[in-house]
Amino acid sequence: MAMPEGMEKIKAIGVIGGGQMGSGIAQLAAVAGYDVWLHDSDPGALGRAAQVISTSIRRLVSKGQLSQLVGADSIKRLKCTPNLEELAGADVIIEAIVESEDIKKKLFSQLDKLAKASAILASNTSSISITRLASATSRPTQVIGMHFMNPPPIMKLIEIVRGADTSDEVFAKIKALAERFGKTVICSQDYPGFIVNRILMPMINEAFFALYTGVATKEDIDTGMKLGTNHPMGPLELADFIGLDVCLSILKVLHEGLGDSKYSPCPLLVQYVDAGRLGRKRGIGVYTYQ
Ligand code: CAA
Ligand code: NAD
């Protein structure tokens, strides 16, 4: 099969953050045939990511969705490393760490110093300005938003966000890469929450307000949206799946960036995050998990 235009030079991909998004992105990249370095600053998270990815690839092989050879090669192509410097050889680095502008900017500044001059720095941010992340580097033309949906191996969409200075060439390369991952691409201007979360998060926040003000039980709110509007998960169940900390961070970016009180996070969501009830990843959020 001919390589899509602009793909010739991408051979190695770095992924930073081995949480639910980074591990899924690393899996996609390895299965698509790239050499992948996955880095997480937390060695425990890195170990869990390696486990999750190899289990997931083996499941795809056992279901006949991947050949044994491709599965084994994909696992071999993936290197998990606690040293950020090992990503220096990557052609594209995809950042998927915590949703905090300050922490991401610090990382982008480090990456700018260690990555190859030609490397593209992409962020999987859900809401933060790509232009501002790019301002932490000396290569703003090579910084772009590549927003995967959760879970990355399953969801068919990637939202691409161009910063103020992202070049046409970098945009074309990242679009071709997303398509190589088998995804459909949509493009958003660099505004808070882009397209998907600008629309999704107010719905999730409203579901929290409905629960907070006693409109209905959590189960009836979720069943209402599942059976009433054919969503695969109800909004509260989806919030637990995304992570309540991630939802709260996105709503804060929407609230601050768009200056409208309609985005103000529901006090119940804030309280759950304060209590460490972050959703499925912590075993407790709106619901409790085994
Ligand atoms: N990784 C890989 N595969 C997974 C997976 C994961 N994390 N979770 C589920 N799957 C696979 C399962 O193996 C199964 O595959 P087969 O059918 O081949 O056996 C398939 O997906 C369906 O899984 P399940 O039967 O276990 O469960 P399900 O039918 O309920 O589907 C779901 C799970 C795909 C997550 C579905 O519930 C769903 O689509 N939920 C909504 C997800 C969503 O809206 N995501 C976007 C969130 S917003 C976002 O991501 C942006 C942001 O910035 C916050
Ligand atoms: P997560 O909490 O599951 O994982 C984040 C990982 O990043 C953790 O393992 C943590 O140890 C690591 N990390 C934090 N700071 C780091 C640093 N400085 N260097 C290296 N590793 C670091 O989070 P997630 O849900 O995977 O989200 C990651 C990013 O993806 C966020 O920007 C989020 O907004 C975005 N996103 C999340 C979803 C979702 O549904 N959860 C969907 C799309 C995009």
TrEMBL record:
Domain of life where this protein originates: Eukaryota
3-hydroxyacyl-CoA dehydrogenase NAD binding domain span: 13-190
Site for Important for catalytic activity, residues: H147
Example of a GO MF term: NAD+ binding
Residues annotated as binding CoA: S56, K63, S126
Keywords carried by this UniProt record: NAD, Oxidoreductase
InterPro entries assigned: 3-OHacyl-CoA_DH, 3-OHacyl-CoA_DH_CS, 3-OHacyl-CoA_DH_NAD-bd, 3HC_DH_C, 6-PGluconate_DH-like_C_sf, 6PGD_dom2, NAD(P)-bd_dom_sf
Residues holding NAD(+): G17, G18, G19, Q20, M21, G22, D40, E99, K104, S126, N150, K281
PANTHER family reported in the protein's UniProt record: 3-HYDROXYACYL-COA DEHYDROGENASE FAMILY PROTEIN, 3-HYDROXYBUTYRYL-COA DEHYDROGENASE
Family from the record: Belongs to the 3-hydroxyacyl-CoA dehydrogenase family. In the central section; belongs to the 3-hydroxyacyl-CoA dehydrogenase family.
The name this protein goes by in its record: 3-hydroxybutyryl-CoA dehydrogenase
